[in-house]
Write a structure and sequence with these properties.
The chain has helices at 50-58, 81-87, 104-112, 124-137, 153-165, 186-201, 213-219, 242-250, 313-317, 341-346, 356-360, 367-372, 376-379, 387-400, 417-429, 447-462, 474-480, 503-510, and strands at residues 10-21, 24-35, 39-43, 68-71, 74-75, 89-92, 174-178, 205-209, 222-227, 230-236, 275-283, 288-295, 299-303, 326-331, 334-336, 349-352, 380-381, 384-385, 435-439, 466-470, 483-488, 491-497. By secondary structure, it is of the alpha/beta class. It folds into four domains: 1-88 and 168-240, P-loop containing nucleotide triphosphate hydrolases (Rossmann fold, 3-Layer(aba) Sandwich), CATH 3.40.50; 99-167, no CATH class; 273-348 and 433-514, P-loop containing nucleotide triphosphate hydrolases (Rossmann fold, 3-Layer(aba) Sandwich), CATH 3.40.50; 364-432, no CATH class. The strands form five sheets. The protein has a six-stranded mixed sheet, sandwiched between helices. A six-stranded mixed sheet has the order 16-19-20-13-21-22. A four-stranded antiparallel sheet has the order 2-1-4-5, covered by helices on one side. α3 (104-112) packs across α4 (124-137).
């Protein structure tokens, strides 16, 4: 599949694509060539611009003036979703968009259409045959009528991918797979990769958005690395190593891979302190037998990609996730086989959740009401909360986390993301917990507020509070943690002490470059 100059024919070409939002240029002058019949990896850490690039290609965002794109040498008018679909640019997102109660017959038919008889009625027998033949053509053999809720994760992903490419001629089309293995255990990844290779071999170009570098090295023919909205490297994956990719992604090309970064604040781990919380052999939706412990006065970080188990462990320890959870939990010397929200609270465990808007704040309440929620019993007399006491309580704790006490009577959703997060932090610090769990503590928080949150966490740790920070942002972990536990595919793959903690070391362990 060569062009006139013995170059692979481009399924997708992009030139000069930029995208600016108010106050930030998310994508800067990106050029991209994706060859027919190849798997092309798009790499970069969170916030590098790859998601904005993909959404712009999909027509969700309109690009800045001057951008050009072509699908199979036909001009692609960017900024029009129906144009991307018509020209043969399809997307399979992490949320697959399937109806789990229905089988592949229905889920495929909703997108590609149904077989009908001469009266216009759906011919369900023929529809099932066509669906089964379509899946089998890409190497998947499954009962097309069986509800997808009963299917394996690779089978569900296969249905979403196959329906996206159904009807394409060989050599036509580009399918974008956004983190297709993020929620798959390792033993199921090979099954999905077989499907991807089959699709590639028909001539379809596959853009694979992934953080998992070992998987990229095993399946991708070509890769593009983005950082701060720009393309910083583009070429065949055969020319690279996982360590080289880590350095590009982490912006440490000129450094030794595990050099200590400059100006890293040192906080010696209090090895002589008592263990405040310990979890052993924890199994959950993603976790596959994880051990973790946090001592009083220690800040421990949890790192890992989506689906590694990083995102669920704080909720398990807080008793907020119980279905399918097993393990042994010891909090302040008391061992539990099962945790609940009430029991964790009784034992002094507090959780600052990941999704502030949905889980952290009550949007219709004032900042004062949000801060005082957990501490109401402290302010109640004979079952009644004194308004003056509540106001003083909220202002005192807002001041303690360097939030504006004068914002106490404002509706909390009128505050910046940083001040909302400070209010949630104040709420849980006000009950004097023994253990503080935080998930994505600086998501949507500006740089100044981040620094305040980091300082507050370190100060509380110095006073003896045990803190567990789960974050997809490596900068969070480097800024505040004494130790980092890296999860991958539901297990602990690395534990880094302070002197070993560097951005490349953490990113490398997360993404498979151990």
């Amino acid at each position: 599949m060569l062009g006139s100059n013995d170059e692979p024919r481009a399924a997708l070409r992009v030139r000069g694509l930029s995208k600016t939002f108010p106050g930030v240029q998310a994508v800067r002058e990106v050029d991209l060539d994706v060859a027919v019949g190849t798997v092309h990896a798009l790499l970069g850490h969170n916030g590098c611009g790859k998601s904005t690039l993909i959404k712009t290609l999909a027509g969700v965002h309109a690009p800045d003036p001057g951008a050009q794109a072509w699908i199979d040498d036909e001009v692609l008018q960017l900024g029009h979703p129906e144009e991307a679909e018509r020209k043969g640019l399809r997307f399979v997102h992490q949320e697959l968009g399937i109806v789990p109660e229905l089988g592949a017959v229905d889920n495929v038919g909703f997108v590609v259409g149904f077989e009908r008889d001469r009266f216009g009625r759906i011919n369900w027998r023929r529809q099932a045959e066509v669906t089964a033949e379509l899946l089998a053509s890409f190497g998947f053999h499954m009962d097309p009528r069986r509800p997808l809720a009963e299917a394996t994760p690779p089978e569900r992903t296969a249905v979403a991918i196959v329906r996206a490419v159904a009807g394409w001629q060989k050599g036509r089309g580009v399918v974008v797979l956004d983190e297709p293995t993020a929620s798959l255990p390792a033993h199921e990844v090979d099954e999905l990769f077989r499907l991807i290779r089959n699709i590639r071999d028909t001539g379809t170009a596959v853009i694979l958005v992934s953080h998992r570098l070992d998987e990229v090295m095993s399946i991708a023919d070509h890769a593009t690395v983005m950082r701060e909205g720009r393309v910083v490297w583009d070429g065949p994956t055969a020319e690279m190593t996982t360590a080289a990719f880590v350095n590009l992604i982490a912006n440490t090309e000129g450094d030794e891979w595990r050099d200590e970064p400059p100006n890293l604040p040192q906080h010696p781990a209090p090895a002589d302190r008592n263990v405040a919380i310990e979890a052993r052999d924890v199994v959950g939706r993603y976790l596959r037998g994880v051990d973790v412990r946090v001592r009083a006065g220690e800040v421990v970080g949890l790192a890992g990609l989506l689906g590694s188990g990083r995102e669920e462990l704080p909720y398990i320890l807080a008793g907020a996730q119980t279905v399918g959870v097993t393990g042994t939990f010891t909090i302040d010397g008391e061992t539990q086989a099962q945790l609940s929200i009430d029991r964790s609270r009784e034992l002094g465990v507090a959780l600052v959740p990941a999704d502030r808007a949905r889980e952290g704040v009550i949007g219709d309440f004032t900042t004062r009401e949000n801060v005082s929620l957990a501490g109401l019993p402290q302010m109640a007399t004979n079952g009644f909360v004194r308004p003056g006491g509540e106001r003083g309580f909220a202002r005192r704790w807002l001041d303690a986390v360097s939030a504006d006490p004068n914002a106490a009577e404002r509706r909390i959703t009128t505050l910046s993301g940083g001040n909302q997060q400070k209010a949630v932090l104040a709420r849980w610090l006000s009950v004097s917990p023994r253990v503080l769990l935080l998930s994505e503590p600086t998501a949507g928080v500006d740089v100044g507020a981040r620094a305040v949150i980091y300082e507050e966490l370190r100060r509380r740790a110095d006073e003896g509070l045990a803190i567990l920070v789960a974050s997809s942002d490596v900068e969070d972990l480097l800024a505040v943690c004494d130790r980092v536990v890296v999860l991958r595919d539901g297990t602990v793959v690395k534990e880094l002490e302070r002197h070993d903690m560097t951005k490349p070391a953490i990113v490398g362990a997360m993404e498979g470059a151990l």
